[in-house]
Design brief:
InterPro entries: BUG, Bug_dom1, TAT_signal. Keywords: Signal. With 326 residues, the chain is α+β, with helices and mostly antiparallel strands. It contains ten helices and 14 strands. It is 37% helix and 25% strand. The longest helix has 22 residues.
């Protein structure tokens, strides 16, 4: 069943609009038509919280009514498809994670294409994943973990919030690059997986670096390596995979904003400019940094390149691991 929850932000006093004017191709003046931002994840999830932070600041800049809708279902496909089918006038936008490029390889019957069905508006943020293991495993370094995995009588198990999630695919990518065998234990959501990792019921998993460092404070887990091309300020002592000799795992977990295909270029550019303004606000930067996130921004082409590159990368991982959800 579709879960739709809404949060409406009243219009404020700002200089100029966010979306396309109903009457013509120019950007709307202050108090233009309402804009719906669809987040295909549950309220309170990391993409949702960021989407609401972004939307509130866009409201303040544009003076338009902004509505956040959580359209949840089918691994994010329900909300994503609703935006693909929306009128391409800039009044319906999508804030989503990089699952948008993974799902085409996971679902054979998918009714949207991440390239053909959308106009990329802006790359928003990266959120590094870290490899975390239960302390009882006795691995304090990545090299020790790989050695244990290669010599274990039975394959080490790992958890994820579910089959085909970024956490699952990240581990599949890593274990192939490291040349190790592991057993996947899928959960129904992140919370129970984290609980079982901390309790020693599973041995390893990927999670966002800020959550990993918090979990490691009491010594129940060890944080071994960071995905991405550089270390994260939240945990500067945690080295990347490439620094520790495992290449090809320098992948960021990212979120982006999209509009329906056919949205006029001037509308996309106008929204992109507003988003870039928000991403530079000190309070927004600070909020992201405390969560271990890094603002991205730039022209729409940055997001377009991310979509094209990561779609091919994850398609290869999914094919090699023989993962399918329908």
């Amino acid at each position: 069943m579709t879960l739709i929850s809404r949060r409406m932000f009243a219009g404020g006093a700002a200089a100029s609009g966010l979306a396309l004017s109903v009457a013509g191709p120019a950007l709307a003046q202050r108090g233009g038509p309402p804009v719906t931002v669809v987040v295909p994840y549950t309220a309170g999830s990391a993409p949702d919280l960021f989407g609401r932070l972004l939307t509130e600041h866009l409201r303040q800049l544009s003076g338009q009514t902004m509505i956040v809708e959580n359209r949840v279902g089918a691994s994010g496909n329900l909300g994503t498809l609703s935006v693909a089918r929306a009128t391409p006038d800039g009044t319906t936008l999508l804030v989503t994670a990089n699952t948008i490029v993974m799902n085409p390889s996971l679902f054979k019957s998918l009714q949207y294409d991440p390239v053909k069905s959308f106009e990329p508006v802006a790359a928003l943020v990266t959120a590094n994943f870290a490899l975390v293991v239960n302390a009882s495993l006795g691995a304090k370094t990545l090299a020790e973990f790989i050695a244990k995995a290669k010599t274990a009588k039975d394959p080490i198990n790992y958890g994820s919030p579910g089959i085909g999630t970024p956490h699952h695919l990240s581990m599949e990518l890593f274990r192939r690059r490291a040349g190790i065998e592991m057993v996947h234990v899928p959960y129904r959501g992140l919370a129970p997986a984290v609980t079982d990792l901390a309790g020693g019921h599973i041995s390893a998993m990927f999670m966002q670096i800020n959550a990993a460092t918090e979990l490691a404070r009491d010594g129940r887990v060890n944080v071994l390596a960071l995905m991405g091309s550089a270390r994260n300020p939240v945990a500067p002592s945690v080295a990347t995979f490439s620094e520790q000799g495992i290449t090809g795992v320098d992948v960021d977990n990212w979120w982006g904003m999209f509009a329906p295909a056919g949205t006029p270029a001037d509308v996309v550019r106008g929204i992109n400019a507003r988003v870039n303004e928000v991403l530079k606000l000190p309070e927004v930067v600070k909020a992201m940094e405390t969560q271990g996130q890094t603002p991205m921004g730039g022209p729409p082409e940055v997001l377009r390149q991310l979509v094209e590159t990561d779609r091919a990368r994850w398609a290869e991982v999914i094919k090699e691991a023989n993962i399918a959800l329908d």
